[in-house]
Amino acid sequence: MDRKELERELRDAFDADPDIVTVVARQARDLSEADQFVTDFGAELTVEDVLDNLADAPEDYRLAERWNWWLGALDLSHGGYARFSVREDIDKTS
Question: Which superkingdom heads the taxonomic lineage of this protein's source (predicted)?
Answer without folding.
Answer: Archaea
